[in-house]
Amino acid sequence: MNNKLLIVGTMAYDAIETPFGKVEKILGGAATYIGLSASQFLVDSAIISVVGEDFDMQHLQLLKEKNLDLSGVEIVKGGETFFWSGRYNEDLNTRTTLETRLNVLENFNPIIPDQFRSPDIVVLGNLSPEVQIKALEQLKRSPTLIILDTMNFWMDHFRSKLDEVIKKVDVISINDEEARQLTGEHSLVKAAQLIHQLGPRYIIIKKGEHGALLFHDNEIFSAPALPLAEVFDPTGAGDSFAGGFAGYLTQTLDFSFNNMKSAVIYGSAMASFTVEKFGTDSLINCSVSSMANRIKAFKELTTFEIEF
Ligand code: AMP
Question: Domains in the chain, ordered, with CATH?
Fold first, then answer.
């Protein structure tokens, strides 16, 4: 039996504009990207989420084929699926959210199936802090690690509830802009120190094409992003990162700082796939051997010998 990973997050339809094109309605959502990314690892994953009646059965089928347990995904009769639209700027590192329609997410009451109430690792993907707390309350024993990913939308509208969640998690994974918003501190090193005081022992700050930082006690690890010839759509990069990070840690259950570093590299590799195509296309077609090649590329990129 594999170790268990519980993923809580949105399943969505997205409309995305990048300098390279525009799509009106494609499969998206934090849990979708996290699940697809984690499915590259030897783990048993379940998604807790909600969709409307408009959600395409083929999309559910696709996720099931990736071995994701969807018994905790509620389908609301007559309801509409969470919808998000965003536009990326020329640099592809910054984006503007054009619209967030919570739809069925507004009254979502998560129910975790019995067989997933004692997971090894939990990823609280981007979604309402209220739902994140409700999910944690249903767990029978403490998971070995709780990882939180969140974004400005929840900081803007639900800060005090979000603070409650932050207090309960071991790892937080956010981008540089969000770390600054959360703490009011421009320096990412100082921001990480302040976030540590809010609860998490590990702080990951993602910097888009400039890679990611992992902070723990007095240690810092800096991972690059893979320099890619073509980046089409950064949507879901952060979630794919979280899925790769969590998938690798669930498979290994080794929380030494060294292994956490490896998990950051696996997360970065999964994110590098996602940005190469629109939406989930690249992740869906990712194979274990292409992932292995990406890891090798990261190794070559960052290994050097120096005498001093
Ligand atoms: P990322 O690019 O990693 O931040 O993830 C983008 C994905 O997150 C998209 O597929 C959206 O459907 C989803 N998303 C956007 N806004 C939110 C939100 N406020 N809460 C949860 N998920 C969101």
Answer: 3-302 (3.40.1190.20)
Q: Atom 1 of ligand 1 has which residue's CA nearest to it?
A: 236
Q: In terms of Cα–Cα distance, which of 245, 69, 259, 51 is closest to 146?
A: 245
Q: What is the pLDDT of residues 210-237, one digit of tens each?
A: 999 999 999 999 999 999 998 889 999 9
Q: What is the pTM of this model?
A: 0.96
| CB proximity list for 54: less than 8 A, separation 6 or greater | 13, 79, 80, 81
Of the candidate ranges 25-29, 87-91, 213-217, 256-260, the one whose mean pLDDT is the lowest: 87-91
The number of the ligand 1 atom at minimal distance from the alpha carbon of 28 is 10
Average pLDDT in the 300-307 region? Answer: 92
- Specify the residue for token string 């998690």: 169
| Residue 31 Cα to ligand 1 middle (Å) | 9
User: In the structure, which protein residues have their CB atom closer than 6 angstroms to any atom of ligand 1?
Assistant: 10, 12, 14, 28-30, 84, 100, 126-127, 151, 153, 235-239
Cα–Cα distance measured from residue 200 to residue 196, given in angstroms and rounded to the nearest whole number? 5
Q: Look up residue 139 and give its two tokens.
A: 């767990």
